[in-house]
Amino acid sequence: MNQTTNTAALENPPPARAWAGQRVLVVEDSTVQRGYLAGLLRQLEFGEILEAGDGNEALQVLERFGEFGTFLVLTDLEMPGMDGIELTCQLRERCLARHLIVVSARDPRLLEIIESMSFEEGHIDLLGTLLKPVQLDALGMLLARAGNKAEPRTACAQPDRPCIDVLKAAIAQKQFVPYFQPKIAIANGHLRGLEALARWQHPERGVLAPLHFIEALEGTPLMADFTLLIVEQVLERLTEWKHAGLPPLTVAINLSADNLAERSFIDRMTELVEASGVPTSSLVWEVTETAVMRQLSQALTNMGRLRLMGYGLAMDDFGIGYSSMQQFARCPFTELKIDRAFVNGAAQWPNRLGVLKGALDLARSLNVATVAEGVELMEDWQLLGKLGCDMAQGYLLARPMPAQDLVGWIKHDRRRLKALAEQR
């Protein structure tokens, strides 16, 4: 299945190509395919391009350059000797390369196996998978995910887990702030809402993503204070934007399982909103199936209370749980957010397309708005338009940004988003 050209991806490259001049290894048993892939990598400005015919040869090549001596391994799945799945397992366990992309011309579900593997505790970052024939723009989009990860990890370590005292001080000093990612109406390209995504403005390490702190907060009494700090700042921003003349916006905020199940937290949160003067209809609380299921009775009770107060409720990451449909049907959701796993690449992957269609049909039958997450390719944007999805969110449209950048982004990107809508 061919991947059509996505000019938007290359017209808006990342600020700096983290891979420029870096070493890459192509693992492919076909000489013709190796040459083709090497040609794409040269166009993307890689430096030294190495080649191997199977997994065993690949490991020998990587070992010559030591720990994280290679920026990227680009490997096929079907090869004699050690195949691509076994090579992927080896790379997860060994500190030989920083990033991995897997390609195949076989059944797309084989690539889904790779994407389903856990890389969180591994020693290599999976940037993604691609169906053959690989196209330049699709490869460039995956490489853009490497972002600022060009520096090797030290001793294969995971991000430092902050202690409770450090987190408590960070909350007291309001070091946690919301960044905002736009949700765009697919029909006309208009800004329909925002999602608030927490960031840690660390005094020494700069802006840190949630993987550096959320796990440490979950299950502790600090999670409530952390969430309320984010809510407080979102309310302040909504008030500022109203005074600046922006049209009314809705902002979605994530609630953890502990938040959702605790009545006293819901009371504190709603008191904060009431005191701000921001209408309840301006806020959407995002919850995952896991959050609902952990303490089902309390979660359902509080979700009912929130809906009665006029708040929106969104099921986040729909499709990745065991009983997403059941929970979605039984809870008073106003919005369905379809996980990026079933959106990104859906135009090329029949199995993802099937799940995506099913989710949209379910939402329509229940009269619930739909949001597709992880929209990175023009083909996916156009497919969502044809399938009747309401809103989209992802790097093709906008990256998460500080509050002070939003007004400028709206003025700068209005025409681009309208043009995108016309191409759906």
UniProtKB/TrEMBL annotation:
Pfam families the record matches: EAL, Response_reg
4-aspartylphosphate found at: 76
Classification via SMART domains: EAL (SM00052), REC (SM00448)
Alphabetized InterPro entries for the sequence: CheY-like_superfamily (IPR011006), Cyclic-di-GMP_PDE-like (IPR050706), EAL_dom (IPR001633), EAL_sf (IPR035919), Sig_transdc_resp-reg_receiver (IPR001789)
Location of the Response regulatory domain: 23-147
Keywords associated with the record: Phosphoprotein
Residue span, EAL domain: 160-414
Protein name per Swiss-Prot or TrEMBL: EAL domain-containing protein
Organism annotation: Pseudoduganella danionis
